[in-house]
Amino acid sequence: MTRPDDLVRAVEATLFAAEEPMTVEAISTHLGGADVKAALAELAATYKDRGVQLVERARRWHFQTAPDLAHLLRREREEVRRLSRAATEVLAIVAYHEPVSRAEIEAIRGVQTAKGTLDVLMEAGWVRIVGRREVPGRPVIYATTPEFLTHFGLESRRDLPGLDELKAAGLLDPVDDALADAMETADQRREAAEAEAGLASEDESA
C-alpha cells in the first residue's frame, strides 16, 4: 500500500470484515504496523451522514447503522423493557462511580441491593465484573461495558452528562430521582476530592 487511498480502503475493508469492534492498535497490527489514525478520521468523516456510520466507542472502532434509521431494520416490533427503579439507580451508580462493589453501591443507595438487580444489568450487557477489591473478603467490583456506551451513544464515560445538563435538556423523566441522586453524590465526591487536593497543595507550598 503506497497510496493514502489504499490505506483508507484497507482500513475500511478490515473493519467491515471484523467480527467485533477493533482498537487502533489492532487495526494497525492487522495492516502491518501502518499508522491508521488519519485513515480512520477520513473514513469517519466520509460516513458521517450516511446510513452506515463509522464510530469509536470505548477506544474501539466499528460500523453501525445511523441511529435515525435503526427502526427500519427491526423486523418485529420490539417490546420496550423498562428497568426497575432499583436497576436504574444501580446502573447510574456504576456508571458514575466505577469500579464499584455491591457494598459500595448499597452505601450510596442507602438500601440493600438484590443480586438479581445486578444480574439484570449484566444480562443486558451494560454491566460486567472487572475484578475484586483488594480488601478483606475481596468483594467483586463492577463497571460498565462498551455495549453500555454504544446503547447510550457515548464515546467514553467522560461524555456522561452532568445533572445540570440533563435538567436543561428535560431528560430526567422517568428516572430523574435515581439519576439525580447518583450524580449529586458523584459531584459531591469530586468536589470534596478537589478541595482536599487543594488543601494538600497549600500545605506543601507553605
Automatic annotation (TrEMBL):
Source taxonomy: Bacteria, Pseudomonadati, Pseudomonadota, Alphaproteobacteria, Sphingomonadales
Pfam families for the chain: SMC_ScpB
Gene3D superfamilies: Winged helix-like DNA-binding domain superfamily/Winged helix DNA-binding domain (1.10.10.10)
InterPro entries: ScpB_csome_segregation, WH-like_DNA-bd_sf, WH_DNA-bd_sf
Name of the protein in its database record: SMC-Scp complex subunit ScpB
Any single GO BP term: chromosome separation
Sorted UniProt keywords: Cell cycle, Cell division, Chromosome partition, Cytoplasm
Renumbered residue ranges of the record's region Disordered: 185-206
Coiled coil: none
Gene assigned in the entry: scpB
Organism annotation: Novosphingobium ginsenosidimutans
